[in-house]
Design brief:
homodimer, alpha/beta, Arc Repressor Mutant, subunit A, Aspartate Aminotransferase, domain 1, Aspartate Aminotransferase, domain 2, 3 domains, eight-stranded mixed sheet, three-stranded antiparallel sheet, 16 helices, 16 strands
Chain lengths: 493, 493
């Protein structure tokens, strides 16, 4: 008899019943070949004594294993490992170890070195991070979300939202967003033009999958939002770059490219170009729309920070002037509400929305209909808009402070323009040193800079800047940030 | 002067300020060519009188338009449309219409006819639906979810969950699931082997994207879970089918295929084959694992209803016997908690999990970290397990009633086996008529049958059944369902 007492570990405090634990461990012994087909298993009384458990528990386990086909009984002879099981080469007897780490797959899979490396963690106690422009989660309206959530689930008819639902997203949110976008951004759409997504990133992903497979050409800025670049490349698109100046994408270069090759899409962060924060001018907007109509390409307009504009009112998106159906307008509530509340939208002609919804069905089936309804109600009640106004005020103060201090203390090292909106300043170095060097020095002063790796074809364009986010830090934190940045730069210069 | 009074519609009750409404409408007029470059705009006093609004409002709008580059002022001459704007062919003057529906894209995009058609709605008042096996959202533990959510957000340090977070999912949920899966299913993993997904569907999608691009071969059952088939095909995989009998996938056929061609993956719903509900036998399990090691393929084990087994305890998944790193184990909390609460997991060797997480970064950035923590806490507290037990008891009663009535009232028309688990019965017709015909007749009796379109290569295999879900209906509803089904079949036979 094999040493069951040593090998089998039972624990009444585990959630699984003891008889199931016994089953599982006997199956393991069979699988690893310790118990071979046709080997005899101790009778239930003997096993119960050996393991110091109740005999009924052993019987329950044996019945289970017989039902599952692992064991069989021979009348008057006893219980045996099923002879129909394949014979396994006997392995060393192992005491089960819960924390065995499986690190390598035993099969081939496709690796994509162009995608992101897993999370790079640079936060630790005492370290201050300058991110690349994200909201402050400390002011997120999470209590309101929780309150509205509670009110919704109190109504039993809302339970239907818990079932499998629409691949387009919650109908009430689609309708609410239709009104909200038509009124606030001059769009001209109906609910059929809206697909609810998991934030802007899913909108970019879905658009790419529909537009860019098989090496289709897309035009982007030099430089451009890195996450979008990676998504376009992953979908199979061919990236073509045009210059970005203080008026945004240079549309004359777009026109020149259209004359050379078939262009399927142009990606534009019209409101504040990512990363440089400039706004696409009115002339360029009209030119781009006109080109899209002439050359039949799609404009992917990523309006990631429409709501954050500090001086004038925000400029209307290109989508508001889209009379022919050329614009795919992508936005999200993540920046207003909170990044982890991943609700966004893709606005486009209905046939495109339909196809995107069908594709989305295989990606993650559908969204979180309950959370979507929460957002609809918070837009209707004005909660979102009130929060947005409040955040705007706070961020404006932070921008002003950050820019004032940058100018006052760090003018020797950095050049920048005060951004009209958004959550970051585009900062360029006055000397030709690399940002990697700055980052290395900064960490010695407990300052972590956002990891902005440039694409290889962007690195060539010298004097690239770095986005320095101000929105997520309080005024005290900004003060300290500048002190550490000053130490860093003094040491480097 | 163009008829501003007719064209411009201002409404103080709209959320956008009146001056912004005026801006937006003037921009529209410029864009559509009604106002051409260099045309003069009425003075602020005249415009205010015309529109019956305050002059300050008009001035604010004009200042805004000048700042945005739409208008320019010439000293002592007045305000004009910016001459630098391109000239637009004049369009018919339109009164803005909010509900203009854009139906057709003016650009080309890829359509995928093999994907799902948009939602087919068959529910209406008075109609009873037989779904294909889904949980009853009326018993979902949504109050508990809301309570735990509230408790979590009360702690201010949990606000960090609202910021951009890990692409792997919430760490506490990964650790909790590690223990939960090791204990309940005999897995042998650490938290590094877990990626949190948006339900099983995203797990299948990510696995497909890593395994099946470029026409790689995958083996599936004949028949098989339709949503998985579509996902594999979309990823570019080549589908190869093997028979399914009462012991599940016929592994001898898998072995034969491995000898003929390179096989990269085998998809298996081992616990209850979808759609036929049979369990993969112990011999087949061991054979399949052994084949995966010999031929170096991945087993995608979709354990979609592990928790719902009525007679014996559930059989351990293949993943529990995966000593070499061949199994990608996919599961979700959606079936226990609620379909719309889309939290699932993909368990695999660490290098595969890393790559899947990186791919997921471009799909939707990350999950809902707050909801993920809620689930972790509900597993730790035993809430999920208690709910699961309660649901199991309810569903067992419903299964028993549904099967008893099927046998009693409809034996003449249907053959089926009582399923040992899951949420549906696999029902076959005793006569060679099509299920489409049954569906058409049923709707006349206010009975809607789940839309199960077979893939073309499955249709050939005659005598296919239909999954009839019992779990989502109360006993009264099941009674009524059977009455209507009886009427349907009587009329048809």
């Amino acid at each position: 008899m094999i040493p069951y007492k040593t090998i089998v570990k039972l624990d009444k405090n585990l959630p699984a019943p003891v008889y199931i634990q016994l089953c599982n461990q006997l199956i393991s012994l069979i699988k690893q070949g310790t118990l071979q087909p046709a080997s005899k298993i101790p009778g239930s009384r003997l096993m119960a004594d050996t393991l110091n458990i109740h005999r009924k528990t052993v019987i329950a386990a044996y019945d289970e294993l017989i039902a599952q086909g692992w064991l069989e009984t021979a009348p008057a002879k006893g219980t045996f490992v099923n002879t129909a099981l394949p014979i396994v080469k006997k392995q060393r007897i192992k005491v089960p170890k819960n924390q065995l780490k499986k690190t390598k797959a035993a099969f081939h899979f496709k690796e994509r070195p162009h995608l992101y490396r897993p999370d790079i963690s640079t936060t630790a106690a005492g370290i201050i991070t300058i991110d690349d422009g994200v909201p402050d989660n400390r002011i997120a309206p999470i209590e309101e979300i929780s309150r509205v959530y509670r009110n919704i689930i109190k109504k039993s008819y809302n339970r239907k939202l818990l079932a499998y639902g629409s691949i387009y997203g919650n109908r009430e949110l689609r309708e609410t967003l239709t009104d909200y976008l038509n009124e606030s951004r001059g769009l001209n759409i109906s609910a059929e033009n809206i697909l609810i997504t998991r934030g802007s990133q899913m909108g970019i992903y879905l658009a790419s999958k529909l537009l860019l497979t098989d090496g289709k050409n897309i035009i982007i800025g030099k430089s451009n939002y890195r996450s979008a670049n990676k998504t376009f490349a992953e979908a199979g698109g061919k990236l073509n770059r045009v210059s970005v100046d203080k008026n945004g994408l240079v549309t004359e270069e777009i026109e020149a490219l259209c004359q050379q090759m078939p262009i399927h899409a142009v990606y534009v962060t019209s409101h504040h170009h990512h990363p440089t924060t400039v706004t696409l001018s009115a002339q360029r907007r009209m030119h781009l729309l006109e080109l899209s109509q002439r050359y039949h390409f799609a404009i992917i307009e990523d309006d990631y920070d429409y709501d954050f504009h500090y001086n004038n009112a925000p400029i209307l998106p290109l989508a508001s002037g889209d009379s022919e159906g050329n614009v795919i307008y992508i936005g999200a509530l993540c920046k207003i509400v909170a990044p982890a509340i991943r609700i966004g939208y893709l606005v486009a002609p209905q046939d495109f929305v339909d196809e995107a919804a069908r594709y989305r069905r295989v990606v993650d089936r559908q969204g979180d209909a309950l959370l979507e309804l929460v957002m609809a109600r918070m837009i209707k009640s004005g909660d979102i808009q009130r929060h947005s106004k409040k955040a705007l005020k706070i961020y404006k103060t932070r921008r002003d402070l950050f820019c004032t201090l940058l100018k006052e203390k760090l003018d020797k090292y950095f050049e920048f323009e005060v951004p009209e909106g958004g959550m970051a300043v585009w900062v360029k170095l006055r000397k030709n040193i690399s940002w990697d060097l700055v980052r290395e020095e900064a960490i010695k002063h407990d300052l972590s800079l956002a990891d902005y790796c440039w694409d290889s074809d962007e690195q060539e364009t010298s004097k690239l800047g770095m986005r320095m986010g101000f929105a997520s830090s309080t005024e005290d934190e900004i003060q300290e940030m500048i002190v550490r940045l000053e130490k860093t730069m003094t040491n480097l210069w």
